[in-house]
Amino acid sequence: xxxxxxxxxxxxxxxxxxxxxxxxxxxxxxxxxxxxxxxxxxxxxxxxxxxxxxxxxxxxxxxxxxxxxxxxxxxxxxxxxxxxxxxxxxxxxxxxxxxxxxxxxxxxxxxxxxxxxxxxxxxxxxxxxxxxxxxxxxxxxxxxxxxxxxxxxxxxxxxxxxxxxxxxxxxxxxxxxxxxxxxxxxxxxxxxxxxxxxxxxxxxxxxxxxxxxxxxxxxxxxxxxxxxxxxxxxxxxxxxxxxxxxxx
Length: 248
Prior knowledge:
Order of helices and strands: HEEHEHEHHEEHEEHEHEHHE
Radius of gyration: 19 Å
Shape: elongated
Largest sheet: 6 strands, mixed
Strand content: 25-35%
Number of strands: 11
Strand order of the largest sheet: 5-6-8-9-10-7
Helix content: 25-40%
C-alpha cells in the first residue's frame, strides 16, 4: 500500500484534528512511499526501532513518538541515533497520542474497559480524555486490584481500603493523575491511571476514593495493539505489535 493511503486512513479513523496535543500526530518521519510491513509499539524507543529494522518494516506506528512540546529540538545523542536508524532504513514513523487515548473502540481507555469488563457511561477531563463508568459486577477493592493485576500482568500500586465496595469507577491511561480530583467530584469509588504523584496519595486518603496506579506503559499497550490488529485486517498486510517491556 502507499504511505499516503495509510496516512489518510489513520487520520480519518483517529481524527487528530479534533485534539490539542503536545506533539504532532500523524507522519513524524518520512520513509518509503510503499508500505508492506508495519511494526506497532507504545513508544518509538531505540529498541522498537531496532525490532522494526530486524523485521524489515517500512513503517512504525506508535502512541509515543517524537517532537514533544517544550523539549530541546537539537538532533544530537539519543535523538540523532533514533532518527539515523529511521532514515538509514527508509522507515516511516507515525505517532498518534491523544487520538489513540480517546478513540471509542481502539483507544487505550476503550481497550482497558473491554479487557477489564467495565461499562463506560461518560467522559470527563480535558478534551474528554478520561472515562467514567461502572463495574459489570460490584466487588471490593481487593478483588478489583486482583482483576487489574491479572489482566495487565503487573501489580498496581494501590491507595485505599481493600474492603471498600467498588461500583462506580473512572479511569484514564498513562499519566492522568491530575484528573483524580474531578473523578472524586463525580462520585466514583475508585480511579485508575498509569501513574501517581505525591499529592495523589493524600487525596485518596482524605477523600476515601481508592487510587490504582497500574503503570503508564501497562495501561497504554492495548490501544496501539488493537490498532495494529485493525490495520492488518483492513489492508491485509503484516502489522505486528512489539511489546518493549517497561516497568513504569
